[in-house]
């Protein structure tokens, strides 16, 4: 009669096979260290912001009635603009137009009141777009001040902002 020892499958495993579970666990512990977030380039650097935005950013102030009509038209087109913001990955020119302080009354104020929910959706789209968000953030513009976005010809986008340039 042949006597079997208490061996089982582990006794016949090679040293590498016995170490494999340990090596797999070690790999899971070390993997997060391969991409440390502390080494990422900060967004305070102008070069990082320019690389994200990737387009010329211009600022100006609006003062006339023709601009008011343009702003109202952009506000009325806010839902479409919000969708376009989410889909846009490159621009040639981004213009930021600061609206006068008295826009709370008149046609611009009425359009803002009428389209408040759509404007909030637009702001969320801008916040979700690295390119648009860093374009406005680099100019110290608060999302709550953004009123409308207008997509023009030749890959030019205009963002209308309440207040004056800081």
Order of helices and strands: HHEHHEHHHEE
Average pLDDT over all residues: 78
Overall SS class = alpha/beta
Number of strands: 4
Characterize the overall form.
elongated
Distance between the termini: 95 Å
Give the helix level as a range of percent: 40-55%
Using the CA coordinates, give the radius of gyration.
28 Å
Multimer state: single chain
Uncertain runs: 38-43
Number of distinct helices: 7
- Which strand order do you get reading across the main beta sheet? 1-2-4-3
Largest sheet: 4 strands, mixed
Number of structural domains:
1
Topology:
Blueprint: H1 15-30, H2 46-53, E1 56-61, H3 65-76, H4 78-87, E2 93-99, H5 106-114, H6 116-127, H7 130-137, E3 146-151, E4 156-162
Parallel strand pairs: 1-2, 2-4
Antiparallel strand pairs: 3-4
Helix pairs in contact: 3-5, 4-6
Keywords summarizing the entry:
single chain, 166 residues, alpha/beta, 4-stranded mixed sheet, 7 helices, 4 strands, elongated
Protein architecture, described:
By secondary structure, this protein is of the alpha/beta class. The chain has one domain. It has 7 helices and 4 strands. A hairpin with a 4-residue loop joins strand 3 and strand 4 (156-162). The protein is elongated. The N and C termini lie far apart (95 Å). Residues 38-43 have low confidence and may be disordered.
